[in-house]
Design a protein that fits this description.
By secondary structure, this protein is mainly α. It has a domain of 44 residues. The protein has 3 helices and no strands. Helix 1 packs antiparallel against helix 2. The longest helix has 24 residues. It is elongated. It starts with 15 loop residues before the first helix and ends with a helix. The relative contact order is 0.16.
């Protein structure tokens, strides 16, 4: 395990640049997967979820305030 926590990294954390590079490559790949899904008229919900949460999962930004998608929130109303 590289980090003791999955929380947001401090701006001066030495791993920030490494994880930032990982996020850049991951974002590119996930965006391409989503684009391919659109071209093939195929839903890619896990690619969309990954794109939405990758930076916070890597600790580069604060986690999103809600872990539920809008569709889940509607079904529980």
């Amino acid at each position: 395990m590289i980090r003791d926590s999955a929380g947001e990294m401090a701006p001066v954390d030495g791993l920030r640049s490494i994880f930032g590079h990982t996020a850049t490559l991951g974002t590119k790949d996930l965006a391409l997967a989503i684009q391919m899904g659109e071209e093939l008229n195929c839903e890619v919900p896990f690619a969309e979820l990954g794109l939405e949460s990758l930076r916070s999962a890597l600790g580069l930004e604060a986690p999103h305030s809600s872990s539920q998608s809008p569709d889940q929130s509607k079904s529980q109303s």
